[in-house]
């Protein structure tokens, strides 16, 4: 007999983004759809833009592009790179490698600096390559490699690039919120964030900060990219110069974003980053206490938004994830792309997820599912080790 029952929804979405959205965001997103030239909507859009600037802590222009963060990444490539431009692409994971497709598409010439996908980029290697290749114009990099659960030192890398006058394109889609990101001080010309990761918002928009040097490079490109969904310059002309939209924005998504950013600022960006880092540390401690190894080569480069756990030899990680999801309603993430099977990911991103209650539940169901698999487990060993690290947590502190 076939079972036509619809799949039960999970109790906890602890996947690596999109993550569960707070009730308040759902309520505030459910406002009536306005005409985009209604003065109330223009005010809402301007307010949302100014909130995004505060979340980035930047005075650079902040563009809200109307599509998933991938749109922002492709738009940055399309708006900056022209045939023959040399681009240093830093690869420490799946997203870094993926960016090369965009460089290729726009005729750029890639110089690749790659490290194993459990490692991080060394800023001194970047310096060496820039010294040897003075014609490199751009450097693309990923801050938080979500699929690897690792983080790159983009502050140091960005500052090396600035010394050489190289324009940086930075994917911090899952970075901002789990760390403070300061575009001006870190040498980030274009920094791209997705609301659906550490900010705990809806998927569907790109937040992008753009430095004056990046604007200038876009305007100098021959020909400058105009009249395209990928054109960042069209947003500059329309929104910043003429106070109109190049096309209809996703009105409902903007409501959700306004709410998401407001909530992040209420917590405070510094505190939100600290929370991610503390919970991540506790999660790693719990996983290790259960006898598992981290995917990241070193604890210092483990990402604060997701813990990637190396799949032990002979361990059926598909079964683990299936048990957690089907029996107990806890959704976690597999390895992505070429990392599939090699690791699985326990995520802790966004204000709704970054909390001792949620981490305790995640690790408890991890233990329960291990026992279901016949894997030796002492109940409470992982949860206990994690909770022991959380003495500093305090909801009442601000
Ligand atoms: C989520 C994510 C993206 C964007 O991918 P989507 O398919 O738009 O969700 C890009 N880079 C990184 C590092 C990410 O984590």
Tell me the CATH topology of the largest domain.
Aspartate Aminotransferase, domain 2
Number of structurally distinct domains = 2
Count of helix runs: 14
Order of helices and strands: EHHEHEHEHEEEHEHEEHHHHEHEEEHH
**CATH superfamily of the largest domain, called what?**
Type I PLP-dependent aspartate aminotransferase-like (Major domain)
Described by strand count, sense and barrel closure, the largest sheet is:
7 strands, mixed
Using the 3D structure, state the CATH architecture of the largest domain. Answer: 3-Layer(aba) Sandwich
Main CATH class of the largest domain: Alpha Beta
Radius of gyration, rounded? 21 Å
What is the end-to-end distance?
Answer: 55 Å
Describe the structure.
- With about 400 residues, the protein is of the alpha/beta class.
- It is globular and about 60 Å long.
- It has helices spanning about 25-30, 40-55, 70-80, 95-105, 125-130, 155-165, 185, 210-220, 230-240, 250-265, 270-290, 315-330, 355-370, 380-385; strands spanning about 10-15, 60-65, 85-90, 110-115, 135-140, 145, 150, 165-170, 190-195, 205-210, 305-310, 330, 335, 345.
- The model has no long low-confidence stretch (mean pLDDT about 95).
- The chain folds into 2 domains: about 10-20 and about 270-390, Aspartate Aminotransferase, domain 1 (Alpha-Beta Complex); about 25-265, Aspartate Aminotransferase, domain 2 (3-Layer(aba) Sandwich), CATH 3.40.640.
- Pyridoxal-5'-phosphate (PLP) binds near residues 68, 70 and 171.
- Pyridoxal-5'-phosphate binds next to helix 3.
């Amino acid at each position: 007999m076939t079972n036509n029952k619809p799949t039960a929804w999970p109790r906890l979405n602890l996947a690596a983004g999109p993550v569960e959205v707070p009730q308040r965001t759902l309520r505030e997103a459910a406002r009536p759809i306005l005409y985009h030239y209604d003065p109330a909507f223009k005010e809402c859009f301007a307010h949302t833009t100014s909130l995004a600037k505060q979340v980035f802590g930047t005075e650079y222009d902040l563009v809200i592009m109307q599509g998933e963060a991938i749109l922002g990444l492709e738009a940055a490539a399309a708006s900056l790179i022209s045939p023959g431009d040399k681009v240093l692409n830093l690869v420490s994971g799946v997203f870094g490698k993926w960016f090369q497709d965009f460089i290729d598409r726009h005729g750029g010439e890639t110089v690749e600096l790659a490290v194993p996908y459990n490692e991080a980029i060394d800023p001194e290697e970047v310096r060496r390559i820039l010294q040897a290749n003075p014609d490199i114009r751009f450097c693309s990099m990923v801050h938080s490699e979500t699929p690897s659960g690792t983080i790159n030192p983009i502050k140091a890398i960005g500052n090396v690039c600035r010394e050489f006058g190289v324009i940086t394109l930075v994917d911090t889609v899952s970075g901002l919120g789990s760390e403070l990101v300061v575009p001006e001080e870190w040498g980030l010309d274009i920094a791209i964030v997705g609301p659906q990761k550490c900010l705990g918002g809806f998927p569907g928009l790109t937040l992008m900060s753009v430095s004056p040097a990046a604007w200038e490079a876009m305007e100098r490109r021959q020909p400058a990219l105009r009249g395209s969904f990928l054109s960042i310059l069209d947003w500059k002309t329309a929104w910043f110069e003429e106070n109109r939209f190049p096309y209809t924005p996703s009105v409902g998504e903007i409501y959700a974003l306004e709410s998401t950013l407001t909530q992040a600022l209420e917590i405070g960006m510094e505190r939100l980053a600290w929370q991610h880092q503390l919970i991540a540390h506790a999660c790693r401690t719990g996983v290790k206490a259960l006898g598992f190894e981290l995917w990241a080569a070193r604890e210092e480069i483990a990402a604060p938004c997701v813990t990637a756990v190396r799949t032990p030899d002979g361990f059926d990680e598909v079964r683990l994830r299936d048990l957690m999801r089907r029996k107990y309603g806890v959704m976690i993430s597999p390895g992505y792309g070429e990392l599939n099977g090699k690791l699985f990911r326990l995520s802790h991103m966004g204000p709704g997820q970054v909390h001792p209650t949620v981490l305790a539940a995640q690790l408890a169901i991890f233990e329960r599912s291990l026992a279901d698999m016949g894997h030796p487990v002492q109940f409470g060993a992982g949860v206990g080790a994690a909770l022991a690290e959380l003495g500093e947590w305090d909801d009442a502190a601000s």
